Each structure stands twice: as C-alpha cells, then as structure tokens.
C-alpha cells in the first residue's frame, strides 16, 4: 500500500510500505476513505515531537471502512463505516476507567502516527478497536465526520471544558486555525457574552467571524488593547491558546482577568515563559491537556443533527496520492487560506450507502 512516511525533520515521502496486519485480538484493520492533516503533524515534521521515529507513518485522523477484525472485537465488523479516533483506549487501566483515555497506560493514548503507524495511508491497524473507532450513521458524510477525529473533541475538551466557559463570559481564542475555529464553535454551546478571535491571517479571522466570533484582531495589532477596551480594562474570563508558540501563550496570560482561566491547547515545541512575578497575585488558573475523546459520541450526535459546522471548515480537497501537495498547502495556510484539508478518493467524497456501508 501507499503511505506518508516520516524520515526525520523536514523529510517525508508518499511511498510503498507493507500492508498492516492484525497483531492483537483487539485490533481492526480499516481501509482509509477520508483522512486529514493536523497541526500536530506539522509539528512532527518540524522535529518538535522527538518521540516520532524515522520510518513512522503519520496521521491520527480518518474515516474508513473496517476490512478485518481480531477475535476479541465485538463493536464493529467488516463492512462497517467508522470514525477512527485520534486517541486509542485500552479500557482497563486507571486512566481509562476515569475516562481520561489520552493518558492511557495500557498501550493506548495518542499512539496513531506517534508511536505506531498512523492513518495517512491506504490502510491502518487500529488497536483497541471497540473503544477507538465509532460506527458512523449514514447521515454524516466522511468529510464532515473526519473533523470529529481530533479537532472538535480537542477544542471542546481541552479548550472549552478545561477553560470552564460559562454564560456571559468574554472568551478570547488566540489562533484561528482549525482547532481555534472548533473552539469558537463549541464555546457557543455555553452562551458566552462575546467571543474574540486573534490570528495573523485575515482569511482565518474571516472564518472566525463566519463561525460566530463577535470580534477579531490581528495578532500584530495590539489585540491586548482591544480586550481591555471590550472588558473595561478587566481582561477576558477565558483565554484559549490554540497556536503552540511561546509568544501566543504569553499573550494569553496577559489578556486574562484576575480569577480567569487560560486553557492551553497548542502543541509547544519550545519553552514558554511563565511570568509568575506578574501572575502569582492574579488568582488565575492555567490548564494544559491532551484530548481524551470522551465527548466524541456526543459530538457525533450533534454533527448528525446539524448542530456543528462540518464541510464549511474544509477549504481544500485532494486525492490520497496528492498527500505531499496537501502538506505544502496546509503548511502555508497564511498564503493559501487553508483551514482543514481532506484527502479522499472520488468514491468516498460523500456517503458510502450504495456499497452497503452504514
């Protein structure tokens, strides 16, 4: 089969690799019908995630069709159309029993495209299939569903829930890429008073407004002053960091009000300064986190009911063998206007009902 293989910082190739095979009785082999690229993948290619070894197939977000299952798998069977979660869960360890699947100590957590081969391939082996894939209703297209593999649960859990967004809050989202936009969309479930988006790219700020942001500011035009003006000098109740660079995190800590919350979603490859000399007296809460995906079933129901934006966040579509071109477009989002890119074959662009998949 073909797959996107990481060969070290700055080096990837779409190449022939062996087909995956069942290794454990809890595995499923899934044919990848639609796959996308995450900002975390860009961090890996840059060398920010040293745990990813050369030779690894990248990717952790996909929708596909089950082609084979191990003997212990009960929740899906060959022919089922499924969402592949970015997080795998053994279901037995302490953290899985607490619903904190991202911290799984039984061989799961974030493994796809990280410590085992991932989804940017024609086929993928998914461990712990009963807890790590979700059967898809026919009402949800593959290109919509793939957004539920990572960006929506990550934005909702690590941003909105960790940030404890409440009715009437002023919420600032720093970074209007796919995760930031998903945070804007899901923060509205809690009726905040206003949402402000900060980014360098005008196209992303426009997308933020389209998805419900009440105000936008360019990151290089004193957004902190706009926050002060909107809050009468108090600061934001919740600031969500969705970039993963030191400057963005430090900006967030300057924007938050006393007693407010900073929810860091971004994947950081470099140290960020924590100015405790200024922050110790402000009673603020700073949270970090890897998504657990405990919210995925609920978000899937909302997607099926039309309550979440789907295809509106997909700006570019490619064939699977255009993977390297898709990476180039996504990595230059400021120039290309890319939000979410999706790769799928023509037969998998929408629903797969005709072939009997459900």
Automatic annotation (TrEMBL):
Keywords: Metal-binding, Oxidoreductase, Zinc
InterPro entries listed in its UniProt record: ADH-like_C, ADH-like_N, ADH_Zn_CS, ER, GroES-like_sf, NAD(P)-bd_dom_sf
Domain of life the protein comes from: Bacteria
Cofactor: Zn(2+)
CDD domains reported for this sequence: FDH_like_ADH2
Domain Enoyl reductase (ER) stretches: 8-343
The family this protein is said to belong to: Belongs to the zinc-containing alcohol dehydrogenase family.
Name assigned to this protein: Alcohol dehydrogenase
Organism, scientific name: Streptomyces amritsarensis
